[in-house]
């Protein structure tokens, strides 16, 4: 098992960052906007599911929300679509907290796949969080 955490500062209030994580319209602005066929489905409630997928790129992710503590924390399972099949879901925690003129966003990813160092995931999270940090949120 491998854990890693990444943090970014977003120039928007916590409530706006929460909506960016928990609405289809919000997440579509920064998750994979470079993949125009990506579909986003999410039900941000305990036991609710999410499913983000780009069929053209052959990638996607899905899982369930285990914690929805508005506007502070999301916890969810993480299973890739395409590529190697995961036997056990990973666990992701997203923490939001007010930070000066914006919001501190920390993503902690627990990798539960044997032999996976998490480097690809770390790069992917870095990419999406970098986009979130520069996206103008209402």
Automatic annotation (TrEMBL):
SUPFAM superfamilies found in the cross-reference section: Bet v1-like (SSF55961)
Entry superkingdom: Bacteria
All residue ranges annotated as the Activator of Hsp90 ATPase homologue 1/2-like C-terminal domain in the record: 12-135
Gene3D superfamilies: 3.30.530.20
Pfam families: AHSA1 (PF08327)
Residue ranges of the TM segments: none
Family as reported in the entry's similarity comment: Belongs to the AHA1 family.
Protein name: SRPBCC domain-containing protein
Organism: Flexivirga alba
Species lineage: Bacteria, Bacillati, Actinomycetota, Actinomycetes, Micrococcales
